[in-house]
Amino acid sequence: MVEVTLIEAARRAALQEMRRDPRVWVLGEDVARGGLWGQYKDFLGEFGAERVVSTPISESTIMGVGLGSALVGMRPIIEMRIFDFVMCAMDELVNQIAKIRYMFGGQAKPAVVVRMPHGMWRNSAAQHSQMLEAWFAHLPGVIVVTPATAEDTAGLLVQAIRSDDPVLFFDPKDLFGVPGNISDPIEPIPFGVARRVAEGDAATVVTWSAAVPVVAKGVEMLAADGIKVDLLDLRTIWPWDQDAVIASVKKTGRLLVVHEAVEVAGFGAEVVARVVDVAGPGALKAAKRLGAPRIPIPFSPALEAEVRVTPEKVVKAVKALIA
Amino acid sequence: MVEVTLIEAARRAALQEMRRDPRVWVLGEDVARGGLWGQYKDFLGEFGAERVVSTPISESTIMGVGLGSALVGMRPIIEMRIFDFVMCAMDELVNQIAKIRYMFGGQAKPAVVVRMPHGMWRNSAAQHSQMLEAWFAHLPGVIVVTPATAEDTAGLLVQAIRSDDPVLFFDPKDLFGVPGNISDPIEPIPFGVARRVAEGDAATVVTWSAAVPVVAKGVEMLAADGIKVDLLDLRTIWPWDQDAVIASVKKTGRLLVVHEAVEVAGFGAEVVARVVDVAGPGALKAAKRLGAPRIPIPFSPALEAEVRVTPEKVVKAVKALIA
Amino acid sequence: MSDPGDNLRRLTDLYATMARIRAFEETALAAHKAGEIPGPLHVSIGQEAVAAGICINLRIDDRITSNHRGHGHAIAKGAEPKRMMAELYGRASGYCRGKGGSMHIADFSVGMLGANGVVAGGIPIAVGAAQGLKLQKSDAIAVCMFGDGAINRGPFLEGLNWAALFKLPVLFVCEDNGVAAFTRADSVTAGPGVTERAKALGVAAITVDGNNVMAVDGAASEAVAAVRRGEGPHLLHVRTYRITGHTSTDPAAWRPAEEVDEARTRDPIKRLGAVLAERGVAPAELDKIIDAAKAEMASARTQANAAAWPAPGVAFEDVQDTGAVAWSK
Amino acid sequence: MSDPGDNLRRLTDLYATMARIRAFEETALAAHKAGEIPGPLHVSIGQEAVAAGICINLRIDDRITSNHRGHGHAIAKGAEPKRMMAELYGRASGYCRGKGGSMHIADFSVGMLGANGVVAGGIPIAVGAAQGLKLQKSDAIAVCMFGDGAINRGPFLEGLNWAALFKLPVLFVCEDNGVAAFTRADSVTAGPGVTERAKALGVAAITVDGNNVMAVDGAASEAVAAVRRGEGPHLLHVRTYRITGHTSTDPAAWRPAEEVDEARTRDPIKRLGAVLAERGVAPAELDKIIDAAKAEMASARTQANAAAWPAPGVAFEDVQDTGAVAWSK
Ligand SMILES: Cc1ncc(C[n+]2csc(CCOP(=O)(O)OP(=O)(O)O)c2C)c(N)n1
Ligand SMILES: Cc1ncc(C[n+]2csc(CCOP(=O)(O)OP(=O)(O)O)c2C)c(N)n1
Ligand SMILES: [Mg+2]
Ligand SMILES: [Mg+2]
Known about the structure:
The complex is a heterotetramer, with two copies of chain A and two copies of chain C. In chain A, 37% of the residues lie in helices and 19% in strands. Chain A has twelve helices and 14 strands. In chain A, the strands form three sheets. Chain A has a seven-stranded mixed β-sheet, sandwiched between helices. Chain A has a five-stranded mixed β-sheet with strand order 9-11-10-13-14, sandwiched between helices. In chain A, strands 1-8 form a two-stranded antiparallel sheet. In chain A, helix 1 packs parallel to helix 7 (150-162) and helix 8 crosses helix 12. By secondary structure, chain C is of the alpha/beta class. Chain C has helices spanning 4-33, 48-55, 71-77, 81-88, 122-135, 154-165, 194-200, 213-228, 257-265, 268-278, 283-306; strands at 63-65, 142-147, 170-176, 179-180, 183-184, 204-209, 234-239. In chain C, helix 6 (154-165) links the parallel strand 2 and strand 3. The longest helix of chain C is centred in the first third of the chain and has 30 residues, at 4-33. The model of chain C has no long low-confidence stretch (mean pLDDT 96). Chains in contact: A-B, A-C, A-D, B-C, B-D, C-D. The interface between A and C is large, with 48 and 49 residues. The complex binds thiamine diphosphate (2 copies) and magnesium ion (MG) (2 copies). The site of one magnesium ion has 7 residues of chain D, from strand 4. The site of one magnesium ion (MG) has 7 residues of chain D, from strand 4.
């Protein structure tokens, strides 16, 4: 076990897998210089310019080239720098990567990992802060990974690189500096298994990605008030750990889903709808979501604070839920 | 009142508005030839090549040029030909059109209408059949219009062209030939008002776009069995007529949301989650969704049939709901 | 290719490939008209010299990407018409188990990485395949087929710049039939043309008469060799003519009849037939090739029409390994 | 411009504009370092001649689009530094009510249609503005500012082709500082360069020394006139150097110190200062201009730092008219 920051954990995971498998290569802007976040620091020296490729600002082609290389047997890590830029590569992602295995009747499995650091971060405003992970849960053909800790980032990235499915990996920008303990070697963490962060009977709280530490803080505050809840970090939203959530809800009868993304039509809606579907409305006394209002992310700290999920909002929401 | 097909109704709506407002212009591939579906037939002759612009195959730029023209006061109809191609223009749509009014503090309201014929149609396979309208309900800054009849298409398109908000208009490809009666002049239909298609107490069924006639058929079959349900066509999914749905659910206690799109994380999840949130789980005996499985759209008629919502599936789902 | 006997054999091969492509597409058109084939169908009648002349220069481990008008590319690369036809029919024995149809035919076993329903969609994929091959130190190359309509989409610029930058083993082929859907290409394309665009992006480029299969073959043979030698990407601008409409149901009535008639006189199959006749191949020989092609495709049609539909559960396969939705009926 | 008095006034104006841009950005850098300005900040120190030399040729009803490094463009187009600074500070009196920040400054009242956080994002928007202006039979034009990094994104090709095709009144300005983020532009850009790319797309193009504001002014004046006369799009390739790093927190330590030192000798403000001195402008005059600029920006900073934050409910405004989510606290 060694204590490292989340982004260093991610670096070590990619490093381990590139050492293990010569088919793995990484492409994206500035990656040969270590990447915007240092997540590929020293890769160039070890793996050379053919496997660590700094690219032009050509997102469509970064994505499409990754795919093309996968079709001849390579396993690319496609670095998108910041999630929002993937909007420049959506045809390649949505119409090609997510469809090819199916459209071609299984002739190819494009084993790509698309890394898309996402979320609010340092007042970056509307074009550098989006959280649209819910979109990809709705998109057949892809895995959607949304880790929140150094441990999970490392283990899930190893799993992603080894996966034959296309994996969309949402690095949580705002948590890159948060430390955690990782093992050596880093063991893969299976997709679709939630992590229990806290245990209690008062309510089930489900969350993922950058919201996790915020919600955890709120849950601690609640515990100090004597309110104990089950807190589940989904870690991946497709597949997601429906069984764990439903088991918890059957125990607590109350569900709150919290995410940084916009509440309307966010993945929280799916969690609620699915629980209601499977467990029946009778299993629930209340089910709510807490997310961002349906507005773009504003720049000003004074306004961004309005949009952010906070521990206080979590406390308030849970109290309302159990009232 | 005159009986015309849905696509002809759409043509007349755009025609009327282009006559009324010289700021309206249309751009897209082949539009000067009348458009892929004849929805701009004879526009070139009447309005000339400056206002009816056949473009290169440059989706990013079709979208971005529409936006740019709106920023100097024009009101473009941006024709995307088939929804799936909007994936080539997502930066312009998501990062620019949806954000500009907000990012710039209200200095501009880009009054664009983006037309995106969507849905399954004639075995067009995975890259020409997608229904991702739910994505845009999750995207702040846009209106999402999903009509199902000639009347609604006409009235909502007039409303869309007159709207100062960016409007994403999902023309229902599969219903283009279905006739309906439109008035002259075509009156605008406000966004966010559901249309009641059938009335009953047994359950509330909510749907929109190409699923509407299919569900209506199923509802007729149910009525023949003596089961009467409230059927609501949302017509627009953002804003959506929450009040009408909740009022109906309070009456029936049972909710089924049906859409052609993938069930997982589709807009049906939002409808269910919102109803549960506002009305409380206690107001419901059951709430379910019926949509496509989470798979790309296959080409073969034998397989496409598996994915499609059918009247029979609706009947089965309602019967299960009320069992 | 200096031995005249060899050369004649090569020309005959080209003739046979073009005849097979033509027969395949005429058969498919008829089947579509008869309601046997569902969905949109884009045929390349008149353009066969491009597919044939390029692909005769490729090895089986060379990869190609194609576009929405890709039957010819697939056949020329070695795909089996029988399985292609079954795919057009949406049957289980089709290349994609009926999931793709005409616009998504692929045969990875012969290096055909897929047709594509998105204009220019194959460009970055081919560039990536080339980069992958280079990473693997293979001397296989990638070939990217696209239409004149694709050169106005962003991936054209991005892909060519990228390929030149990394000196990738990729040959770009712009199959220029002068039209994109229902709009003349020159009415939506500014500047001096695709070869100048390519050169401005660092990619060597020449124009060739795409209705003369020998010219295509000659140019392709040089370009493929250069690309394989590691000299970086090349582009061939191949000028041809699409005799039929955009889709099987499009009469392309907006084109003057004389234009189409004139183009018919430049039919690449007829032209090569005349050359072969000149070189002493008997008309009966040529007829035999044509007849064989027609018979092959007629049989493909009959088989496809009789083939089994995919079982319903097949719709739920090939989605993803983890988190796939199970089929239940 | 033939009258020497006029010319001197113009040069002095250019000097003042550059001085103001420099002072604005140095002030912003200091404020960012002091923790007063949040978020990423991209300054254009060393590149001021581009903004100044281009925009002096524009009317208020001409429109510009800009990129992530757009303070200079905005100031040169006539935006008020006070409101810009307030925006950088995220205050209610900022141009965007605090919603945009440095990367999204816009001032529609002076034809500044916005900075852009997406590389090449402004290209189609400028082309569309030009098309709109043409539809309105206006003789205003659109100007599109972007970096050398943007020429490898698809919208560059699409936008130029489009503008040439429809002969739109748009001037493209490629502000080439030789670097895109942390990567040298020439290491990711193939072919002979941006002017050749433009010409291959039907757009007239020339290169100009972007550290010589007189050269930029001269080239822009001709290009703007041609565009305004309806001669179709033009492109100026303006070569310059970014003295500072990619963002305010980037030391750009990977560049050899000598390179930066050499570039400093070509500082556009110093260069024009030398020319003005030669033409008899007293050093004290120049100092006065610089001092005035510094004072203006210092005051903008003080005001911004003291300005009110936007009220929380402002976050919920300017979203959409119909279906907006109401604010409730
Ligand atoms: C991105 C995208 N835009 C539009 C279309 C619709 N479309 C299909 S084929 C076609 C014309 C393509 O022309 P070209 O590339 O010259 O190929 P050709 O049909 O002439 O063989 C168009 C516009 C598409 N498939 N993809
Ligand atoms: C589409 C997109 N990709 C990547 C980025 C991240 N990014 C911001 S600025 C920049 C470099 C841009 O270089 P250039 O256009 O030359 O402008 P400069 O910074 O040199 O002024 C990059 C890669 C972005 N903003 N948008
Ligand atoms: Mg063509
Ligand atoms: Mg630059």
